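During the no-cost extension, the postdoctoral fellow (Dr. R.K.) reprocessed legacy sequence entries with the updated structure-token encoder. One reprocessed record is reproduced below for audit purposes.
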Amino acid sequence: FTTWLIDIVHAVFSLPYGQSFIVVNFSLFFFCGVVLYFTSRASGQSVKAAGLSVPLFYSSFTILFAFFASIYTYDEPLQYLLIFFSLLFLEKRQIWLSLAALTGAALARETSLILLPALFFFVLPFQYKKWKKVLLCLVPVAGFVLFETIFMTSVGIAPEQTEYLATSRFQHFFSNFETVQYGVESIVSIVLALGLPFLFLLVSRMSAG
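Re-encoded structure tokens follow.
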């Protein structure tokens, strides 16, 4: 989806692809901050806490080093934006809009589906039977698979993409640990990305307790 947005900006404004890339991605990152603020406020946070969440997001490891060699932690800002929308809609008890946003996030980057177990706990307060809550959490998976199948079939790349997924796609993960240096960098990156949020959650729990 981001590639399509870059193509549109390139065609409409006659900008080189490099500049179109910058315009699209940094615009999406800007809106990420806006939606994150309102999501934080909707969850009951104070104005000060919601405002603080924005610079903390922008200074997080995967954002701050997104486009710098040789880190390249680049994740789709569209993915972040749609995930924040999904959380915002959840806070407002608009479950179907939340599921639609999370489906869009999965289409932007399939790693969004990792959030599905957490989504189940978000929908626990809803007045649904447990089996229906499980089915609701599977909606993004169904939407992702359906769209990908229709798209790949329509453009005639389904067999090639299936073979790529089966033989190569998930092998890229092991490239992060193919040498000692890569392995150390990968582990440190995970710690930097998850350590600070975990610390905040731990301090928050201890303060609440």
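The mean pLDDT is 82. The two ends are 43 Å apart (CA to CA). The remaining legacy entries will be reprocessed before the final report is submitted.
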